[in-house]
Design goal:
homotrimer; 215 residues; mainly alpha
Chain lengths: 215, 215, 215
């Protein structure tokens, strides 16, 4: 079967994982720093906003799970944020042209962090409904914290399918675990599903209904 | 004595507790979702705001006490928030007419969550002054988080006696424990006191003084 | 050597520490309450904003380190905030005249809390790069939380060298530990360095570059 590669070549899988995590973290940090630039924040403000997007969701998850926040166990995430900061400062004028690239990386980040959140919660012996919420928090809370720090209403509450792609991926993951499917298959299918749902929603302008006001 | 019912019929007491907790959680979630609707947030935004009011204060308390956040131990609170979401979506037009009912439920929630916060802190071997602060956080922090997510100044900082009813209830609880009064009496009197203080403050437009500006 | 006094007279050192902590906490709480007064918050809002500045950064640090938040171990910080509240209420008109005094106390607080954050993180067996971040969080996060509660963009993201003084102090501390300098020397030099950097930056209007917008 195609998925046997994941067992035959663990180094290859590990490399792919690290590259995806690098791209995802970079994209999350970039989104924070670029929004900070729009608000005329200084370099420190940019770093904090970028770092908050990159690690905010996972940190909230880890605090609630009662484990040490993941970013304290390796300098990888601080270094990624510094890299993103340098990119924004040096290539400010060229960032917009690459918007589709950042969108792709950002969606990779959403898919990856959702899955990581689910797996970490299950490892901590949480039930699946908690794991799905934690997956969503891991993927989305960083962006909410960013918008709070920017003094804006969180964009994830008003536009696009973003959080719902994460929740749908979590439910799919649950379903595949219930079917007792192979672990690698479960992860890869969930990963692709989250990315596909988000891009389909963007392509066809699908969004959640707005709550009706009471007048 | 009247309070002996609490010992003669533990099932009855437990049922009342669950009903009160349902009403309180529902009212807290409703307040979050309705405010989100005013801001034109979508269904996801509404759910997050509702859930934040319902569990935000207790989660902050549990993180500081070093225990697992209470909402992760039972799906009750997620289900209550979903129920509140359905109510707001289906009955949007009728919500305003029931404003007095929601106010009553909300006040029940304040009283209940304050007492729960105090008791949980004491169980965690905290001193009473910490327990009173935790009671106030349990009752009020959710609403503050809601207003932060709505990008508004927290309403609890500007209007009405709300937090002070919680603090007054906490001091009363402490006083009754110091007097070594019966446990059921302590809880019931505190519960009634918090509700009474809030309604008297609303009825007679009593509020805390505003801080004077420096000019 | 001059620093031997720290070993010959531990009571003297302890007294200085308590006085500095009192001044720092008071200044942090005052900044929260005065900003709340500008926003016309009531007494409760003022207290929460003041308390958030005084304990917010250290609480975030302690949650991430997995230890009980420091303010729960002694009523000192609550009492300091109450004292600050009384000062603001009684002496509202005279506060502005003392602005230079508050600035000095606030800078003492920044230096002290940075060092306390670094030391506590090292005690918790964290690596030095985490300790420096924790020092910065201890000194700066309270002010960010205050501005979020005031519904304003955090001032630390837009003006002055504030956080960078904390980070520079942290790096200097690291360097001196690496040189295996005497502990008392390390602490005192870091303390003076942070205060000096901040005042030089204020005096010569040094600030971080603003992120360039993309147009």
């Amino acid at each position: 079967m195609w998925y046997e590669i994941f067992y035959r070549d663990p180094d290859f899988v590990r490399s792919i994982q690290v590259i995806l995590e690098l791209l995802g973290t970079l994209a999350f940090a970039l989104s924070g720093i670029r929004h900070a630039a729009e608000k005329k924040y200084d370099w420190f403000g940019g770093f904090v906003c970028g770092f908050s997007v990159a690690i905010g969701g996972g940190t909230l998850r880890d605090l609630m799970l009662g484990v040490t926040p993941f970013w304290m166990t390796s300098p990888f995430y601080v270094v990624c944020t510094m890299l993103a900061q340098v990119i924004v400062i040096v290539f400010a004028k060229y960032m917009k042209r690459l918007d589709n690239t950042w969108l792709l990386f950002d969606t990779i980040g959403l898919a990856l962090f959702t899955i990581a959140g689910i797996q970490k919660s299950l490892t901590c012996a949480q039930p699946f409904w908690v794991a799905i919420i934690m997956g969503c928090i891991t993927g989305c809370a960083g962006g909410i914290i960013r918008d709070v720090l920017l003094n804006k209403p969180p964009v994830v509450f008003q536009k696009e399918i973003y959080a719902m792609a994460s929740v749908a991926g979590g439910l799919l993951y649950w379903f595949m675990v219930w079917l007792e499917l192979n672990f690698a298959v479960t992860v890869v299918v969930t990963f692709i599903a989250i990315i596909t749902i988000r891009f389909l929603a963007l392509r066809y302008h699908i969004s959640l209904p707005v709550l009706q006001s009471e007048e």
